[in-house]
Amino acid sequence: MGSLLRSILPISIPKKDDDDEYNVEYSFATEYTGPPVSYNIPKALPIDVGCISTASIVSTPVNSGNLSLPVIYPVLKREPKPFSGLIVPEANSPCSPVGEGSTASLGFSDSQENSSLSSDKDCHEIEEFSASEEDQAHHDISDYENRTQAVTFREPESSTTDQEETRYSHEPMYQERPHADPNIKKGLCHRCLKGNRFTLKESCIVCDAKYCSKCVLRVMGAMPEGRKCITCIGYPINELKRRRLGRCSKVLKTLLTDNRVKQVMTFEKSCLVNQAPYSLIFVNGQPLTFDEVLLLQTCAYPPKRLVPGSYWYDKMSGLWGKEGHKPCQVISPSLIVGGSIMENASNGNTKVKINGRVISKAELLMLKFAGINCKGCPHFWVSHDGSCQEEGQNQMKGKIWEKPGIETICAFLSLPVPPKSFISSEEEVVNNGSQIVSKKVDVKSLTKILLVGQDQSGTSAIYKQAKILYKVPFLDDERQKIKSLIQSNLYLYISILLEGLKQFEEDYSIQIRKKLADQPSTSAAGGSVKNIEKNIYSLSTELQSFSDSLLQVVKSGNLEVVFPDVSYEYSGLVEKLWKDEGFLATYARRDELSTLPMVAEYFLSRAIEISSMTYEPSDEDILYADGITSSNGLASMEYSVPSSPPVTFMDATEQNDAPLQRYQLIRVNAGNLGNNCKWLDMFEDVDLILYCVDLTSYNEFHVDNNMNLINKMLESKNIFENIITHPSFINKQFLLILNKFDLLEKQIITTPLTQCDWFHDFNPFITSYTYNNGSSDNNKNNSSVAQYGFQYIAAKFKKLFSDLTGRKLYVSSVIGLEADSVDAALRYGNDVLTWIDEENKHISGNNEYSFESSETSL
Ligand SMILES: Nc1nc2c(ncn2[C@@H]2O[C@H](COP(=O)(O)OP(=O)(O)OP(=O)(O)O)[C@@H](O)[C@H]2O)c(=O)[nH]1
Ligand SMILES: [Mg+2]
């Protein structure tokens, strides 16, 4: 007795029988010998009844003659209007299948004429029903997550897992998929045929039909495979949409609760039928079999994005990459997948080999950094734990992954490192799970962003700001180092003040002597001389000896070595300094001390607190602190950007689940890129370059090696030219960050842009009155002149970029010390990437996201 529903997926794909109903066929376990069983499901189901497609609740037999047929109880939240042709149960009453032996009232699949649902009138009723109860429906939808959505088999001991796998392994993976009706006018909802190109819509990941927010849940039901029409369930996705899997649009987010959205997105990413068709995945030149894909996806360290394409895999080391490219990941080693690795797999040209593959330039640099001698183009064997050995020699050259600093250098070179838990035991690394279906394929593609600029342009401030903004924590020992640095910086600033104080003291003495010389009669009036003799800049003996020793240490260049260790011993003296009249008088004249950095004031105003033992730097202190990035100017971090509420319809059109998108921000100082930025090819796989320019550098100069005075803005322009024309960066997207806008506002009034030759024709049409006087509207005027200045500089760079590359440069004005400003610039960078992506798709005739669709960002 008893038939079994074999799967939550219909075995034969739902076929559209007529305009109003879908006929869904289910097949049964072997003991069932009866005719096929099918259900007629009205096309215009109220949303809740859509659950029927996932066969909610338990199947129980219905005795229809000699047959026992499974029965599905649809989960209904509210009383729907009864449909004839489909039994709508009373509470707990079953909705019976269509099949031989069922009663006529159940609606045989071959007696569709019995179904009055097919009449226009009834369809109309359904529309009305939905409209009048829309609010209620919203409540109901939010309760979705509380419902049972999976099939429970009546005889659980008869597990179907094996059959399921067998079925998938025998079926061709690449099935013909349904397509949306091409006759439906663009912009219209494919169900209600209403709306326009501005209507928010969600599209089916199989057929690409687009539905408005009123229709989407009706058409997609419970979404057991993610965003698919009920009729598309069981079909493979449109491969062009693979990148979008698990990334939800605004429409669903407004209709479902957060948890429910997450659940649907997880179904979408992890269900078997949505996985990449294995025959289109090549590893070391060979197409994969289903078992090989299974092995790859369930191993301990699987490839991050296994989409159709050609990959190479070094089975010994676990290095994995796209054919013709350097490695992008270290996956579990020793997996028996694909063919043997080819010598030219990664298109390397260094003649040095690792496990038979000629490595890329970046890998060669990494080996050199790890202290491995690569002279004479040797061939190495490298195992999964990084043990390196030259071919034919018994001598071990050490473990690459254990070399200090290897992670930073790999980030710098855009090379992968194995995860920390990439354990020494090969078996454990190779260890594979077996349940592909339940495995969550949490794909997070990494967008790489390179932040580069001249020294002092503010790259460091922007990098730290991003770290704070996107909550990438500073590690404990990192904080400790920062604390020491801030404290030694403080003593440096104090030493500059003390140096100034010495000068002021001397000047004052000269003044006294001059006065005495000018007024010889004063010497007769003893009291006056006494008054004049008191030099307010003189320090007490104790403070004087502190000043002498501090200046001595600074002169010797040992400040950072000496002071962090003894800073607490001097904190009492710092306190005394802040009570000393002469020191306070010097502090009041700090603007006259050109060597005192602007940021010094921020720390000096809290000198006593900062020099104390209990001081812990705040995020803001870290942001303002100079010299935190490593000495070679290279830093890298990964982060994700939380989604922000849409501001415009444009934003709302494609609200992805932003936290899923990961970014790597690599910050490098242009000075470290070598002559003509030759090291830039290490960053050839970045997606976006943020070039940072200090807006106030137009009147700054520095002396080059040939003792020429170089304008810093012109130097920045030269570096920019080198970067944008570098062969590795052809066709890369650039966002110009014009930083320190706050300082430009102050500076542009007193120092016109024309001080830089490049800006000789700057003429903002501002009256001389605006330029010169301090009217009450001064700030406003400063701001508008600065705005002109910004626009003008942006236009100069845009023209330069367009002349050299023939493309468009994106520009953003930034204040590196303000979180919102940096956040906006980085988000703008992400938008640029999205636009370009969409544009490329459009140009290449790829119809994945049509421009009229709500999902478009443009
Ligand atoms: N007022 C103001 N100061 C800024 C801004 N951006 C950066 N700064 C300051 O300008 C100085 C130079 O900026 P950094 O971030 O150190 O720039 P960098 O020289 O590229 O980075 P490093 O090489 O690590 O020093 C620092 O003191 C920053 O605090 C800004 O937008 N406004
Ligand atoms: Mg700096």
UniProtKB/TrEMBL annotation:
Binding residues annotated for GTP, in chain numbering: N739, K740, F741, D742
Q: Name one GO biological process term.
A: G protein-coupled receptor signaling pathway
Query: What are the record keywords, sorted?
Result: GTP-binding, Magnesium, Metal-binding, Nucleotide-binding, Transducer, Zinc, Zinc-finger
Q: Which residues cross the membrane?
A: none
For the region Disordered, what residue ranges are annotated?
A: 94-123, 146-180
Q: Which InterPro entries match?
A: Gprotein_alpha_su, GproteinA_insert, P-loop_NTPase, XLG_GTP-binding, Znf_FYVE_PHD
Name the PANTHER family for this protein. Answer: OS01G0977800 PROTEIN (PTHR36486), PH DOMAIN-CONTAINING PROTEIN (PTHR36486:SF4)
Species lineage, top-down? Eukaryota, Viridiplantae, Streptophyta, Embryophyta, Tracheophyta
- Feature: compositional bias, Basic and acidic residues: 164-180
Compositionally biased spans, kind Low complexity: 109-118
Q: Name one GO molecular function term.
A: zinc ion binding
User: So where does Mg(2+) get bound?
Assistant: S460, S631
What Gene3D superfamilies would the database entry show?
GI Alpha 1, domain 2-like, P-loop containing nucleotide triphosphate hydrolases
The molecule here is called Extra-large GTP-binding protein 2
